């Protein structure tokens, strides 16, 4: 699309019933600065066009021109003994090291390894408020850290990378550079060697950090090559791929822990976890009252207090439930399959965990803007309908002529344009 | 000309709302606008204060549920 497109033409493409979806899509695209919509005026009709940078970059990418190296430069040298197993192993050790460091701050010193993440990673976790340096020599975990632990691996990776991007400037890197490097990384192929010599100097520095995260592996013998690990290649995959990919990663991690699912939870809220991994036990102890520990399992109960405590630390009931069901023991899965694909967890427990959360959440808070003092009914109706169409309206009262929206920029423009007319 | 006011929309039970109104009646530092039985707008910077006050108020009125049971 090289020429601007009049909005009225665009309206013709869209089924009248889907106007709402069209407006939401347009609003999103312009927030992302992918399209620009000209301000409404009396002389010229409104037109929509792709922003200049996006258009040229898109054309370049589609035609495969330019030397932007968006997809990395594979190394032609044959490398000895770097296989998928080694990469998965490496990624897992690095990543678990980071998780252990975060958990360690709560885990009653269940594990005091000399290993763990490098200083740079520790600083990053602190900058992102996942852990805080307490008064004691040991550091403490924060709310954000708790929810970080319960996320899926892929989400965890992204959380950490976003922190990294935010703090890039402190480490004397340009965050645009970092971002483009990450997207490049996401398009690389697992188990393939890539050249480091074609990278710019700042990218080489980034590579060092990514090695710390376990996203990239550099064989000790040849420093001119790097291998993306599974963590890196799944960065930009879409939602459906994500599931199977994270399953792949789970399979990789399960080598260390024995079985994939290990949690049995009964209708009387008792919980048995067949694991000896300090990481998993520490995560469980965030929301369970653990009572007994055996060499290969821990037993405990999910109680109102333990859930309350978890929720006060910022963990949601949905996070807990999804953690329990993704790590459910094969026996629970078998039982649910026997009932023709019923729920994996006992419904009473799931409901009760939700109820415990609702008990604490007595109000639902949404930051935003209250619009009031409309001059007449017509103006009010127009504005509230527009707010609804772009998907920002969350509350309205026709009698009082007030409504509440989450964002006000576009609405402000809209009100101004009404004034013009 | 319509006005836009920054704030936090709070949706809750009527009972909770009346507690919030009671807390606010002491110094009028929290509520921007009462909208209806279940919704009101709160000043953005006072939200965490209000949450703490509400928690305290509820602690006084509620009996903790019995949570015994053997392991």
Automatic annotation (TrEMBL), chain A:
Q: State the compartments where it is located.
A: Nucleus
Q: Does the keyword DNA repair apply?
A: yes
Q: Which UniProt keywords apply?
A: DNA damage, DNA repair, Nucleus, Transcription, Transcription regulation
Q: Where is the Transcription factor Tfb2 C-terminal domain?
A: 351-416
Pfam families (UniProt xref): Tfb2, Tfb2_C
Q: What Gene3D superfamilies has UniProt attached to this entry?
A: 3.30.70.2610
Q: GO annotations under biological process?
A: nucleotide-excision repair; transcription by RNA polymerase II
Question: One GO molecular function term?
Answer: ATPase activator activity
Which InterPro entries does this chain map to?
Answer: Tfb2_C, TFIIH_p52/Tfb2
Primary site of residence: nucleus
The record's GO CC annotations read: transcription factor TFIIH core complex; transcription factor TFIIH holo complex
**Which family, according to the similarity comment?**
Belongs to the TFB2 family.
Stated role: Component of the general transcription and DNA repair factor IIH (TFIIH) core complex, which is involved in general and transcription-coupled nucleotide excision repair (NER) of damaged DNA and, when complexed to TFIIK, in RNA transcription by RNA polymerase II. In NER, TFIIH acts by opening DNA around the lesion to allow the excision of the damaged oligonucleotide and its replacement by a new DNA fragment. In transcription, TFIIH has an essential role in transcription initiation. Component of the general transcription and DNA repair factor IIH (TFIIH) core complex which is involved in general and transcription-coupled nucleotide excision repair (NER) of damaged DNA.
> Which protein is depicted?
RNA polymerase II transcription factor B subunit 2
Organism equals: Amorphotheca resinae ATCC 22711
Taxonomy of the source species: Eukaryota, Fungi, Dikarya, Ascomycota, Pezizomycotina
From TrEMBL, chain B:
Instruction: List the subcellular locations.
Output: Nucleus
- State the GO CC annotations: transcription factor TFIIH core complex; transcription factor TFIIH holo complex
**Quick check: keyword Iron-sulfur in the entry?**
no
Q: Name one Pfam family in it.
A: Tfb5
Coarse class of the protein's main subcellular location: nucleus
SMART domains, A to Z: Tbf5
Family membership: Belongs to the TFB5 family.
Q: What is this protein called?
A: General transcription and DNA repair factor IIH subunit TFB5
Q: Which organism is it from?
A: Amorphotheca resinae ATCC 22711
């Amino acid at each position: 699309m090289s020429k601007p497109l009049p909005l009225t033409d665009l309206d013709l493409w869209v089924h009248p019933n889907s106007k709402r979806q069209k407006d939401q899509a347009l609003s999103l695209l312009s927030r992302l600065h992918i399209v620009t919509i000209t301000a409404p005026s009396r002389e010229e009709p409104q037109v929509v066009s792709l922003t200049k940078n996006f258009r040229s970059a898109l054309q370049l990418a589609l035609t495969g021109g330019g030397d932007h190296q968006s997809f990395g430069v594979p190394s032609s040298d044959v490398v000895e003994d770097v296989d998928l197993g080694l990469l998965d192993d490496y990624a897992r050790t690095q990543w678990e090291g980071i998780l252990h460091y975060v958990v360690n701050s709560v885990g009653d010193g269940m594990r005091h390894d000399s290993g763990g993440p490098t200083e740079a990673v520790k600083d990053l976790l602190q900058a992102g408020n996942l852990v805080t340096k307490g008064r004691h020599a040991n550091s403490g975990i924060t709310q954000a850290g708790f929810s970080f632990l319960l996320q899926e691996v892929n989400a965890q990776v992204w959380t950490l990378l976003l922190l990294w991007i935010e703090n890039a400037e402190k480490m004397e890197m340009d965050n645009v550079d970092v971002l483009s490097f990450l997207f490049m990384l996401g398009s690389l192929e697992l188990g393939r060697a890539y050249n480091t010599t074609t990278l710019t100097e700042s990218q080489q520095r980034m590579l060092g950090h990514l090695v710390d995260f376990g996203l990239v592996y550099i064989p000790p013998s040849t420093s001119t090559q790097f291998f993306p690990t599974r963590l890196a290649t799944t960065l930009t995959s879409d939602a459906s791929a994500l599931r199977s990919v994270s399953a792949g990663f789970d399979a990789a991690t399960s080598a260390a822990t024995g079985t994939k699912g290990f949690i049995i939870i009964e209708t009387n809220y008792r919980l048995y976890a067949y694991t000896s991994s300090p990481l998993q036990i520490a995560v469980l102890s965030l929301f369970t009252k653990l009572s007994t520990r055996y060499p290969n399992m821990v037993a405990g109960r999910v109680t109102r207090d333990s859930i309350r405590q978890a929720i006060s630390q910022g963990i949601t009931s949905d996070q807990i439930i999804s953690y329990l069901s993704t790590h459910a023991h094969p026996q629970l899965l078998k039982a649910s399959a026997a009932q023709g694909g019923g729920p994996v967890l006992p419904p009473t427990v799931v409901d009760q965990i939700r109820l415990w959360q609702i008990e604490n959440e007595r109000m639902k808070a949404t930051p935003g803007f209250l619009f009031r003092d409309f001059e007449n009914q017509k103006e009010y109706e127009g504005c509230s309908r527009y707010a609804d169409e772009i998907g920002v309206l969350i509350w309205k009262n026709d009698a009082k002529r007030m409504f509440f929206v989450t964002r006000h920029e576009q609405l402000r423009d809209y009100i101004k344009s009404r004034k013009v007319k | 000309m319509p006005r836009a006011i920054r704030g936090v929309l709070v949706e809750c039970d009527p009972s909770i709302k009346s507690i919030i109104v009671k807390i606010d009646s002491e110094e009028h530092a929290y509520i921007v606008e009462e909208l209806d039985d279940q919704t009101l707008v709160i000043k953005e910077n006072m939200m965490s204060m209000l949450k703490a006050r509400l928690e305290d108020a509820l602690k006084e009125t509620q009996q903790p549920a019995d949570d015994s049971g053997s392991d």
